[in-house]
Amino acid sequence: MARPDKAAAVAELTDQFRSSNAAVLTEYRGLTVAQLKQLRRSLGENAQYAVVKNTLTKIAANEAGIDSLDDLFAGPTAVAFITGDPVESAKGLRDFAKDNPNLVIKGGVLDGKALSADEIKKLADLESREVLLSKLAGAFKGKQSQTASLFQALPSKLVRTVDALRAKQAEQGGAE
Question: pLDDT at residue 52 above 80?
Fold first, then answer.
């Protein structure tokens, strides 16, 4: 009777690994139920935080094509499955871990690439996707403005040069 339950749990975890942009493994030893509830809220709408069994999660990760997390499945483990912006959820984990030292970030995976705990903290230090895109758009707009000014400067300089030549010819023609 336990086998179909375990197979269903592995299938569900495998689907979560496949449908997530990122997954972060944490150790939650010492956190209360109220703190775990607060952590789930701090991760945002695009993340699901689940306490998991190590052996089943290891099997699910391997079935999803992620074998770089095998060393991290030791001790009490919970996984944050992130479907949206990984930076937002990483910030939520980092900030919660600052206030609650019992939460330990073990590592994770982002778009199939393994991340260490330090790399997840660096990810949390990034600005959000929207901020980075707006900065990129601003840089493009600035370059377009400079290009437009350059193209506008050439004809106006030509007109000033021609006017200066006419004035010089008129001056020379009037003197003779």
Answer: yes
